[in-house]
Design goal:
Distance between the termini: 45 Å
CATH architecture of the largest domain: Alpha-Beta Complex
Number of strands: 13
Helix content: 25-40%
Number of helices: 8
CATH topology of the largest domain: Spore Coat Polysaccharide Biosynthesis Protein SpsA, Chain A
Largest sheet: 9 strands, mixed
Structural class: alpha/beta
Oligomer: single chain
Order of helices and strands: EHEEHEEHEEEEEHHEEEHHH
Length: about 300
Amino acid sequence: MASPDIPADSEPEVWACVICYQPELRSLRQLVALLEPQVKQVVVVDNSAGARSRAPLEFGRSRYLPMGSNVGTAAAMNEVWRLALEGGAGFLITFDQDSRPGEELVRFLLAAHDAPSPSGQPVAAVGPAWKDARTGRAMRLLRPVRFRRRHVAAPATGVVEVDHLISSGCLISAPAYRAVGPFDERLFLDYVDVEWSLRARSLGYATVVAAGCAMTHAIGERMLPFAGRQLAVHSPQRTYLQLRNHLLLWRTARIPRLWLLSDLKQVASKVLGLLVLAADRRERLRWIGRAVVDGLRGKDGPPPG
């Protein structure tokens, strides 16, 4: 990738956070080493149960923040945002532990943030086009949804407006975070990034992808072909969260009902695919039943123990 034309002395202050859970330390240190030259401060948030403070040399000049238990992605990101705002950060970029950004990812995303959005709305957040770390397959972009979902291939360059961004690789400005509000901790993990993006869009912001900016990332434990697309296989507990949280979103007035109908079709297809292809059908079906009951009752937070 060619370097974007941004003078180094004019760059705003950017913080980064890495949300991890039972991480493999060598891989985590490699990710931190990629991020440290690109931002002012890296915060490694460890959601592992019983995590303790590690030696500072483990993560260079980065800050290690053990949560003591799995508080969820939303709570972890909100805590880093609190620290970043106190520290005067203008932007925060978040990552999962299994993502691998390019060496100039942050500079590219900052340039894309400052570019006009296709709709002319102010940009709240920008993310990279990403590839599956296991297959090298480029993931398609989801254009803004009303009723019918429109997945499109990412172009080689340019800024593309999207329905929502995944949290890994997502750069959000401090003014947008203040205006849109914190991530919804009731959702714990799944749909946290989707809900925030939709909330931002409902307030007149745009969420965009910098199409010429790439990152590798892995979603799910593995990918399986299903009905002409790639199906991410998660644990039964994650299937529970995805289905339950979709039902919780029906209680949220700011989420458009047509969007929810479109998402319902997507969720139903995913659940059907997992029941057909996954080996643990009986266990998964049990978690699906719990998800429906808990979602209809409005139960939120982490999955049942």
